[in-house]
Amino acid sequence: MNHEEELRLIRRVLGGDAEAFAPLVERYSRPIFSLVYGIVGRREQSEELTQDIFVKAYTKLSTYRGASSFSTWLYRIACNMALSAVRPKRYTFSLFDEKRVERLVDGSEQEQAELARIEERERMLLQALDRLAPEERALVQLHYYENRPLAECGEILGLTENNSKVRLHRIRKKLELWINEKS
Length: 183
Description:
By secondary structure, the protein is mainly α. It is about 75% helix and about 0% strand. The chain contains nine helices and no strands. It has helices at about 5-15, 20-40, 45-60, 70-85, 100-105, 110-130, 135-145, 150-155, 160-180. α4 (about 70-85) packs across α8 and α8 (about 150-155) crosses α9. The radius of gyration is 19 Å and the shape is elongated. The termini are far apart.
C-alpha cells in the first residue's frame, strides 16, 4: 500500500466510511505489535496496547495532516503509548529463535560451541538493553529491530535526525561498556 492509497483510505474514513480503516489496521497491526512488544516485553499487554493504539489512531485520524507518512504518524502514537506503559516499570527484549535452539541441540560440537558463545553474547546484550531508559530502548527498537531510518526515528520520538544519531551512538557506547564489564 503506497502513500496515495493510504491517503484515499483516510479521506474515506474521515468522510464516514469506518470500514475503510480496516486495511490500515491489517497493514500495520503486525509491525505496530512488534514495536510495542519490543518496548513492553509482555505479549498480552502488547496485544492490548496495539488495540488501544489503533482505537486512538482512529479517533485522532482528523489530526493527521499528511506531512509525514501515515506509518510515521502511527508509530509515533505507538511509541508514546508503549513508553507511557513502561515508564514506571522495567522490561526485557525478547529474542527467541526456534531454529537456533534446534541447531544448538542437533548441531556438531563446534556449531554448538559457537552458538553457545553467540547466545551468551546476546544474553549479555539483552541484560544491557534492560538497563536502558525506556526512550533509549524505543530508539534501539525503532532503528535496529524495525529498520527505521534515523530521520524517521527522530520524527517518531520528537528528535532531530542528528540528535537521534548522537543518542544512538551514546547508547551503543553505553551498551558496549556494560557488556564488556560483564565479560
